[in-house]
Amino acid sequence: MNNSITKLFHIKYPMIQAGMIWCSGWRLASAVSNAGGLGIIGAGSMYPEVLRTHIRKCKGATAHPFAVNVPLLYPNIQEIMDIIVEEGVKIVFTSAGNPATWTQFLKEKGITVVHVIANTKFALKAEACGVDAIVAEGFEAGGHNGREETTTLCLIPMVKAAVKIPVIAAGGIASGAAMLAAFALGAVAVQIGSAFAVAEESSAHPNFKHKIINATEGDTKLQMKKLVPVRLLKNHFAELISQAEANGANTQQLAEILGRARAKLGMFEGDMEEGELEIGQVSAMLDEIKPAAQILQEIWEDFLSTKQQLQDLKF
After folding, report:
1. Which whole number is the average pLDDT over 214-219?
2. Which domain holds residue 174?
3. Do 233 and 193 sit in the same domain of this protein?
4. What is 233-286 written as a DSSP string?
5. Smaller CB count within 10 Å for the chain: N or C?
6. Does some domain include residue 123?
Protein backbone atom coordinates (compact mmCIF):
# COMPACT_ATOMS: atom_id res chain seq x y z
CA MET A 1 0.00 0.00 0.00
CA ASN A 2 1.20 3.48 -0.86
CA ASN A 3 -0.45 6.33 1.02
CA SER A 4 0.42 9.48 2.97
CA ILE A 5 1.74 7.56 5.99
CA THR A 6 3.81 4.98 4.12
CA LYS A 7 5.34 7.88 2.16
CA LEU A 8 5.90 9.97 5.31
CA PHE A 9 7.71 7.20 7.17
CA HIS A 10 9.13 5.34 4.13
CA ILE A 11 7.58 2.03 5.22
CA LYS A 12 5.89 -0.81 3.32
CA TYR A 13 2.73 -1.21 5.42
CA PRO A 14 0.66 1.51 7.16
CA MET A 15 1.11 -0.31 10.46
CA ILE A 16 2.86 1.17 13.48
CA GLN A 17 3.91 -0.54 16.69
CA ALA A 18 3.02 1.51 19.75
CA GLY A 19 5.77 2.84 22.01
CA MET A 20 4.78 0.92 25.14
CA ILE A 21 6.68 1.31 28.39
CA TRP A 22 8.58 -1.81 29.46
CA CYS A 23 7.52 -3.65 26.29
CA SER A 24 9.04 -1.85 23.32
CA GLY A 25 12.80 -1.93 23.35
CA TRP A 26 15.13 -2.22 20.37
CA ARG A 27 14.38 -5.90 19.71
CA LEU A 28 10.66 -5.31 19.16
CA ALA A 29 11.15 -2.04 17.28
CA SER A 30 13.71 -3.51 14.89
CA ALA A 31 11.61 -6.65 14.32
CA VAL A 32 8.55 -4.61 13.34
CA SER A 33 10.58 -2.31 11.10
CA ASN A 34 12.27 -5.27 9.42
CA ALA A 35 8.81 -6.73 8.75
CA GLY A 36 7.71 -3.60 6.89
CA GLY A 37 5.95 -1.62 9.60
CA LEU A 38 7.24 1.21 11.77
CA GLY A 39 8.82 0.00 14.99
CA ILE A 40 8.94 2.35 17.97
CA ILE A 41 11.26 2.39 20.97
CA GLY A 42 9.32 3.39 24.09
CA ALA A 43 11.48 5.97 25.87
CA GLY A 44 9.04 6.31 28.77
CA SER A 45 10.60 3.41 30.63
CA MET A 46 14.22 4.33 29.94
CA TYR A 47 16.84 6.52 31.56
CA PRO A 48 18.50 8.73 28.93
CA GLU A 49 21.65 6.62 28.49
CA VAL A 50 19.56 3.44 28.35
CA LEU A 51 17.58 5.04 25.54
CA ARG A 52 20.82 5.86 23.72
CA THR A 53 21.86 2.21 23.94
CA HIS A 54 18.50 1.04 22.56
CA ILE A 55 18.68 3.50 19.67
CA ARG A 56 22.17 2.33 18.75
CA LYS A 57 21.21 -1.34 18.96
CA CYS A 58 18.11 -0.70 16.87
CA LYS A 59 20.21 1.02 14.19
CA GLY A 60 22.46 -2.02 14.20
CA ALA A 61 19.53 -4.43 13.88
CA THR A 62 17.57 -2.76 11.07
CA ALA A 63 18.30 -0.66 8.01
CA HIS A 64 14.66 0.43 7.95
CA PRO A 65 13.04 3.49 9.59
CA PHE A 66 12.09 3.34 13.26
CA ALA A 67 10.85 5.90 15.76
CA VAL A 68 11.11 6.84 19.42
CA ASN A 69 8.06 7.57 21.55
CA VAL A 70 8.54 10.24 24.25
CA PRO A 71 5.86 10.77 26.92
CA LEU A 72 6.23 14.48 27.62
CA LEU A 73 5.23 14.23 31.28
CA TYR A 74 8.38 12.27 32.10
CA PRO A 75 11.53 13.83 33.62
CA ASN A 76 14.83 14.35 31.77
CA ILE A 77 13.01 15.43 28.61
CA GLN A 78 15.77 17.83 27.50
CA GLU A 79 18.39 15.12 27.83
CA ILE A 80 16.18 12.62 26.01
CA MET A 81 15.54 15.03 23.14
CA ASP A 82 19.26 15.83 22.87
CA ILE A 83 20.06 12.12 22.61
CA ILE A 84 17.41 11.65 19.92
CA VAL A 85 19.01 14.43 17.89
CA GLU A 86 22.58 13.25 18.54
CA GLU A 87 21.75 9.68 17.49
CA GLY A 88 20.06 10.76 14.28
CA VAL A 89 16.55 9.49 15.00
CA LYS A 90 14.32 10.57 12.11
CA ILE A 91 10.84 10.06 13.59
CA VAL A 92 9.51 10.95 17.04
CA PHE A 93 6.08 10.22 18.51
CA THR A 94 5.21 12.48 21.45
CA SER A 95 2.43 11.77 23.93
CA ALA A 96 1.05 12.65 27.36
CA GLY A 97 1.84 16.35 27.23
CA ASN A 98 1.74 19.61 25.31
CA PRO A 99 3.03 19.26 21.71
CA ALA A 100 3.80 22.97 21.60
CA THR A 101 6.76 22.40 23.93
CA TRP A 102 8.93 20.26 21.66
CA THR A 103 7.47 20.05 18.14
CA GLN A 104 9.31 23.09 16.79
CA PHE A 105 12.60 21.98 18.35
CA LEU A 106 12.33 18.59 16.65
CA LYS A 107 11.12 19.95 13.33
CA GLU A 108 14.06 22.35 13.17
CA LYS A 109 16.32 19.30 13.41
CA GLY A 110 14.59 17.70 10.41
CA ILE A 111 12.69 15.17 12.51
CA THR A 112 9.19 13.98 11.56
CA VAL A 113 6.86 14.51 14.54
CA VAL A 114 3.65 12.67 15.40
CA HIS A 115 1.57 13.42 18.49
CA VAL A 116 -0.87 11.11 20.28
CA ILE A 117 -4.26 12.59 21.21
CA ALA A 118 -7.60 11.36 22.57
CA ASN A 119 -9.97 14.18 21.55
CA THR A 120 -10.54 16.69 18.75
CA LYS A 121 -9.45 19.65 20.90
CA PHE A 122 -5.92 18.32 21.22
CA ALA A 123 -5.93 17.07 17.63
CA LEU A 124 -6.44 20.66 16.48
CA LYS A 125 -3.83 21.89 18.93
CA ALA A 126 -1.28 19.36 17.69
CA GLU A 127 -1.99 20.30 14.08
CA ALA A 128 -1.54 23.99 14.92
CA CYS A 129 1.83 23.15 16.50
CA GLY A 130 3.02 21.77 13.18
CA VAL A 131 3.08 18.00 13.75
CA ASP A 132 3.18 15.87 10.61
CA ALA A 133 0.47 13.43 11.70
CA ILE A 134 -1.54 12.48 14.75
CA VAL A 135 -2.43 9.23 16.48
CA ALA A 136 -6.08 9.30 17.57
CA GLU A 137 -6.28 6.83 20.44
CA GLY A 138 -9.65 5.55 21.59
CA PHE A 139 -10.92 4.49 25.00
CA GLU A 140 -10.15 0.82 24.29
CA ALA A 141 -6.40 1.43 24.32
CA GLY A 142 -4.01 0.39 27.06
CA GLY A 143 -1.56 2.66 28.83
CA HIS A 144 -2.27 6.38 29.12
CA ASN A 145 -5.77 7.14 27.95
CA GLY A 146 -8.24 9.97 27.46
CA ARG A 147 -10.47 11.15 30.28
CA GLU A 148 -13.36 11.57 27.85
CA GLU A 149 -13.64 7.80 27.30
CA THR A 150 -14.35 8.29 23.59
CA THR A 151 -14.17 4.99 21.73
CA THR A 152 -12.08 4.54 18.60
CA LEU A 153 -15.23 4.07 16.52
CA CYS A 154 -16.42 7.55 17.50
CA LEU A 155 -13.07 9.31 17.80
CA ILE A 156 -11.57 8.60 14.37
CA PRO A 157 -14.31 10.17 12.20
CA MET A 158 -14.52 13.23 14.48
CA VAL A 159 -10.77 13.80 14.37
CA LYS A 160 -10.64 13.13 10.63
CA ALA A 161 -13.30 15.81 10.07
CA ALA A 162 -11.42 18.29 12.27
CA VAL A 163 -7.87 18.13 10.87
CA LYS A 164 -6.13 18.11 7.50
CA ILE A 165 -3.04 16.10 8.49
CA PRO A 166 -2.95 12.26 8.36
CA VAL A 167 -4.79 10.41 11.12
CA ILE A 168 -3.43 7.17 12.58
CA ALA A 169 -6.03 5.10 14.45
CA ALA A 170 -5.21 3.42 17.76
CA GLY A 171 -7.17 1.58 20.42
CA GLY A 172 -8.68 -1.89 20.03
CA ILE A 173 -6.85 -2.79 16.81
CA ALA A 174 -5.34 -6.27 16.69
CA SER A 175 -6.86 -7.67 13.50
CA GLY A 176 -7.04 -6.79 9.84
CA ALA A 177 -10.80 -6.39 10.12
CA ALA A 178 -10.36 -3.74 12.82
CA MET A 179 -7.68 -2.08 10.69
CA LEU A 180 -10.06 -1.96 7.72
CA ALA A 181 -12.78 -0.47 9.92
CA ALA A 182 -10.35 2.27 10.99
CA PHE A 183 -9.60 3.01 7.33
CA ALA A 184 -13.33 3.18 6.57
CA LEU A 185 -13.65 5.82 9.31
CA GLY A 186 -10.90 7.99 7.80
CA ALA A 187 -7.60 6.73 9.19
CA VAL A 188 -4.68 6.13 6.82
CA ALA A 189 -2.71 3.90 9.20
CA VAL A 190 -3.09 2.07 12.49
CA GLN A 191 -1.01 1.94 15.66
CA ILE A 192 -1.01 -1.44 17.35
CA GLY A 193 0.01 -1.90 20.98
CA SER A 194 -1.39 -4.87 22.87
CA ALA A 195 -0.85 -7.38 20.05
CA PHE A 196 2.85 -6.47 19.95
CA ALA A 197 3.14 -6.43 23.76
CA VAL A 198 2.89 -10.24 23.60
CA ALA A 199 5.32 -10.60 20.70
CA GLU A 200 8.34 -12.82 21.27
CA GLU A 201 10.60 -9.78 20.90
CA SER A 202 8.65 -7.67 23.42
CA SER A 203 10.67 -6.89 26.54
CA ALA A 204 7.61 -7.54 28.73
CA HIS A 205 8.08 -10.20 31.40
CA PRO A 206 6.77 -13.67 30.39
CA ASN A 207 4.35 -13.53 33.36
CA PHE A 208 2.80 -10.39 31.91
CA LYS A 209 2.57 -11.86 28.42
CA HIS A 210 0.80 -14.94 29.73
CA LYS A 211 -1.59 -12.87 31.83
CA ILE A 212 -2.48 -10.89 28.69
CA ILE A 213 -3.21 -13.94 26.56
CA ASN A 214 -5.30 -15.43 29.38
CA ALA A 215 -7.35 -12.25 29.79
CA THR A 216 -11.06 -12.29 29.01
CA GLU A 217 -13.72 -9.64 28.48
CA GLY A 218 -13.94 -7.22 31.38
CA ASP A 219 -10.46 -7.99 32.72
CA THR A 220 -9.27 -4.43 32.03
CA LYS A 221 -10.56 -1.15 33.39
CA LEU A 222 -9.71 2.54 32.92
CA GLN A 223 -8.50 3.81 36.29
CA MET A 224 -6.75 6.74 37.99
CA LYS A 225 -8.62 9.37 35.97
CA LYS A 226 -7.86 11.98 38.64
CA LEU A 227 -4.13 11.28 38.31
CA VAL A 228 -3.17 9.86 34.91
CA PRO A 229 -5.90 7.82 33.18
CA VAL A 230 -4.56 4.35 32.44
CA ARG A 231 -6.17 1.04 31.45
CA LEU A 232 -5.12 -1.76 33.77
CA LEU A 233 -5.52 -5.51 33.99
CA LYS A 234 -7.26 -6.66 37.15
CA ASN A 235 -4.96 -7.61 40.03
CA HIS A 236 -4.43 -6.68 43.69
CA PHE A 237 -2.96 -3.28 42.85
CA ALA A 238 -5.86 -2.45 40.52
CA GLU A 239 -8.29 -3.44 43.26
CA LEU A 240 -6.55 -1.10 45.72
CA ILE A 241 -6.99 1.72 43.23
CA SER A 242 -10.66 0.82 42.66
CA GLN A 243 -11.35 0.85 46.38
CA ALA A 244 -9.56 4.16 46.84
CA GLU A 245 -11.47 5.75 43.95
CA ALA A 246 -14.76 4.44 45.31
CA ASN A 247 -13.90 6.12 48.60
CA GLY A 248 -13.21 9.45 46.89
CA ALA A 249 -9.40 9.40 46.94
CA ASN A 250 -7.78 12.59 45.70
CA THR A 251 -4.79 12.91 43.38
CA GLN A 252 -2.25 12.82 46.20
CA GLN A 253 -3.76 9.71 47.75
CA LEU A 254 -3.78 7.90 44.41
CA ALA A 255 -0.16 8.90 43.82
CA GLU A 256 0.79 7.47 47.22
CA ILE A 257 -0.82 4.12 46.35
CA LEU A 258 0.86 4.12 42.94
CA GLY A 259 4.29 4.90 44.41
CA ARG A 260 7.37 4.56 42.22
CA ALA A 261 8.31 1.92 39.64
CA ARG A 262 4.94 0.18 39.91
CA ALA A 263 4.75 -0.38 36.13
CA LYS A 264 8.28 -1.78 36.05
CA LEU A 265 7.40 -4.13 38.91
CA GLY A 266 4.54 -5.63 36.94
CA MET A 267 5.30 -5.45 33.23
CA PHE A 268 9.08 -5.86 33.35
CA GLU A 269 9.79 -7.73 36.58
CA GLY A 270 6.72 -9.98 36.50
CA ASP A 271 4.85 -9.28 39.75
CA MET A 272 1.28 -9.94 38.63
CA GLU A 273 -0.40 -8.86 41.86
CA GLU A 274 1.39 -5.72 43.04
CA GLY A 275 2.55 -4.42 39.65
CA GLU A 276 0.80 -1.93 37.37
CA LEU A 277 -0.30 -3.91 34.30
CA GLU A 278 -1.14 -1.61 31.40
CA ILE A 279 -2.92 -3.22 28.44
CA GLY A 280 -5.86 -2.63 26.11
CA GLN A 281 -9.33 -4.17 25.97
CA VAL A 282 -8.25 -6.11 22.90
CA SER A 283 -6.17 -8.32 25.21
CA ALA A 284 -9.29 -10.51 25.44
CA MET A 285 -8.77 -11.37 21.74
CA LEU A 286 -5.11 -12.35 22.08
CA ASP A 287 -4.29 -15.99 22.75
CA GLU A 288 -0.75 -16.68 21.57
CA ILE A 289 2.82 -15.40 21.82
CA LYS A 290 4.26 -15.04 18.29
CA PRO A 291 7.14 -13.32 16.50
CA ALA A 292 6.42 -9.68 15.68
CA ALA A 293 6.81 -10.30 11.94
CA GLN A 294 4.15 -13.00 12.07
CA ILE A 295 1.77 -10.74 14.00
CA LEU A 296 2.19 -7.96 11.45
CA GLN A 297 1.80 -10.25 8.44
CA GLU A 298 -1.30 -11.96 9.84
CA ILE A 299 -2.98 -8.61 10.47
CA TRP A 300 -2.07 -7.39 6.99
CA GLU A 301 -3.37 -10.56 5.31
CA ASP A 302 -6.58 -10.34 7.34
CA PHE A 303 -6.92 -6.71 6.23
CA LEU A 304 -6.66 -7.73 2.57
CA SER A 305 -8.99 -10.72 2.87
CA THR A 306 -11.61 -8.74 4.78
CA LYS A 307 -11.40 -5.98 2.19
CA GLN A 308 -11.98 -8.56 -0.55
CA GLN A 309 -14.92 -10.08 1.30
CA LEU A 310 -16.60 -6.67 1.48
CA GLN A 311 -15.93 -6.07 -2.20
CA ASP A 312 -17.54 -9.43 -3.00
CA LEU A 313 -20.74 -8.60 -1.09
CA LYS A 314 -23.77 -7.99 -3.27
CA PHE A 315 -25.94 -5.16 -1.96
Report:
1. 96
2. 4-204+285-312
3. no
4. E-SHHHHHHHHHHHTT--HHHHHHHH-SSHHIIIIIT--TTTS--B--GGGGG-
5. C
6. yes
